[in-house]
């Protein structure tokens, strides 16, 4: 039989007084998937992650975690670990002592034996005996991840895990998450940044003002956007601008004096422009989207939703 879904959320509503934080949210995450939750500030990402972690109960809707319906009691569902709003750490304890305290609290000897291993996985071995009071945001995030790993979760929930991480820190943390997913753990993480999600996630859910604006594979999201803005650098900007002006179906942006031409239009029209530039003996030195197709789709979807 197939493994149960890690997350199955249907029609989830959550309000705080007058503020509707989640409005009919659906989320499906199978085992072994890294699923990105993105959206502008206040979109409802942290609220949704909090429900998955058992920190709050939805006003209405149904939520199943790892095949078990979530009840009305506040409790971290079996098999789930992670954090929202930054990991909770004891500042006067060292990194190793923080993890030992967690293992002692759970009364789990196997957990205690894994401490060195998880510290190594997140790259904190060298600072394991330093008090966390002096830890940077990135180090705190890594220690939070180490604490979650100790529990050997089948569903890992992370709120903005790449916050504060430098490029090598990101690479290391992403490696940890990818190995977990390969072993069947589902990961749901939030981010403001499409490039982070693109590097890590196979599927994404975009929230805008509490509603799902898109949910599905990243490739499908890129297909949502038909027309991108492209910047074109040529050997003769003035002549290129004239050729572009004579090409039907093309919109031209950017300042008149700028050496860079910014155009948007359907791909066949862009193809036509490039052919015409070459025929006019104008060299095309660069042609690239102003923002990635995913970023453009994200912006288009969230703008539409927030404009309502
Ligand atoms: N405990 C609370 N009390 C009142 N309002 C809340 C509470 N928690 C969240 N909200 C509101 O619910 C909405 C969703 O907030 P949430 O923190 O889930 O968004 P988010 O997508 O995580 O935002 P950010 O990217 O800024 O972290 C916001 O309007 C927020 O002000």
How does this structure look, described?
The chain is α/β, with parallel strands linked by helices and 308 residues long. The chain folds into 2 domains: 7-223, Rossmann fold (3-Layer(aba) Sandwich), CATH 3.40.50.300; 229-290, Malonyl-CoA ACP transacylase, ACP-binding (Alpha-Beta Plaits, 2-Layer Sandwich). It is built from 11 helices and 14 strands. It has helices at 45-52, 95-106, 109-113, 115-121, 137-150, 167-182, 194-200, 218-223, 237-245, 267-279, 293-307, and strands spanning 7-16, 19-29, 34-38, 60-65, 68-69, 80-83, 155-159, 186-191, 203-208, 211-217, 229-234, 251-253, 260-264, 284-289. Strands 6-7-8-3-9-10 form a 6-stranded mixed β-sheet, sandwiched between helices. Helix 2 runs parallel beside helix 5 (137-150). It is elongated and about 75 Å long. 38% of the residues are buried. The protein binds adenosine-5'-triphosphate (ATP). Adenosine-5'-triphosphate (ATP) binds next to strand 2 and helix 1.
Q: What's the domain count?
A: 2
Q: What is the percent of helical residues?
A: 25-40%
Q: Would you identify the regions where 5 or more consecutive residues have pLDDT less than 50?
A: none
Largest beta sheet: strand ordering: 6-7-8-3-9-10
| Beta strand count | 14
Individual helix count: 11
Shape: elongated
Overall structural class, as computed from helix and strand content, comes to alpha/beta
pLDDT averaged over residues: 88
Summarize the structure.
With 308 residues, this protein is α/β, with parallel strands linked by helices.
SSE inventory with pairings:
Blueprint: E1 7-16, E2 19-29, E3 34-38, H1 45-52, E4 60-65, E5 68-69, E6 80-83, H2 95-106, H3 109-113, H4 115-121, H5 137-150, E7 155-159, H6 167-182, E8 186-191, H7 194-200, E9 203-208, E10 211-217, H8 218-223, E11 229-234, H9 237-245, E12 251-253, E13 260-264, H10 267-279, E14 284-289, H11 293-307
Parallel strand pairs: 3-8, 3-9, 6-7, 7-8
Antiparallel strand pairs: 1-2, 1-4, 4-5, 9-10, 11-13, 11-14, 12-13
Helix pairs in contact: 2-5, 4-5
This protein binds adenosine-5'-triphosphate.
The site of adenosine-5'-triphosphate (ATP) has 11 residues, from strand 2 and helix 1.
């Amino acid at each position: 039989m197939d493994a149960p879904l890690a997350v199955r959320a249907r029609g989830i509503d959550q309000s705080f007084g007058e503020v509707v934080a989640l409005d009919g949210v659906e989320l499906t995450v199978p085992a072994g998937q890294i699923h990105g939750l993105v959206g502008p500030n206040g979109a409802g990402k942290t609220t949704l992650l909090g429900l998955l972690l058992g920190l709050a109960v939805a006003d209405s809707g149904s939520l199943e975690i790892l095949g078990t319906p979530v009840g009305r009691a506040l409790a971290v569902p079996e098999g789930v670990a992670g954090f929202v709003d930054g990991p909770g750490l004891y500042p006067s304890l060292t990194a190793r002592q923080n993890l030992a305290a967690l293992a002692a609290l759970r009364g789990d000897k196997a957990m205690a034996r894994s401490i060195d291993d998880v510290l190594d996985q997140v790259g904190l071995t060298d600072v394991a005996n330093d008090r966390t009071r002096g830890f940077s945001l990135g180090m705190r995030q890594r220690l939070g991840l180490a604490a979650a790993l100790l529990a050997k979760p089948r569903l890992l929930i992370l709120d903005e895990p790449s916050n504060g991480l430098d490029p090598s820190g990101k690479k290391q943390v992403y490696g940890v998450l990818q190995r977990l997913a390969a072993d069947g753990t589902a990961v749901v993480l939030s981010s403001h940044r499409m490039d982070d999600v693109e590097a890590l996630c196979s599927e994404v859910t975009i929230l805008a003002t509490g509603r799902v604006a898109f949910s599905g594979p990243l490739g499908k999201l890129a297909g949502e956007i038909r027309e991108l803005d492209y910047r074109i650098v040529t050997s003769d900007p003035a002549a290129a601008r004239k050729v572009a002006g004579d090409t039907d179906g093309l919109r031209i942006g950017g300042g008149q004096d700028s050496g860079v031409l910014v155009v948007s239009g359907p791909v066949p029209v862009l193809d036509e422009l490039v052919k015409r530039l070459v025929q006019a003996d104008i060299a095309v030195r660069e042609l690239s989207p102003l923002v990635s197709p995913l970023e453009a789709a994200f912006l288009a979807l969230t703008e539409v939703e927030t404009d309502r």
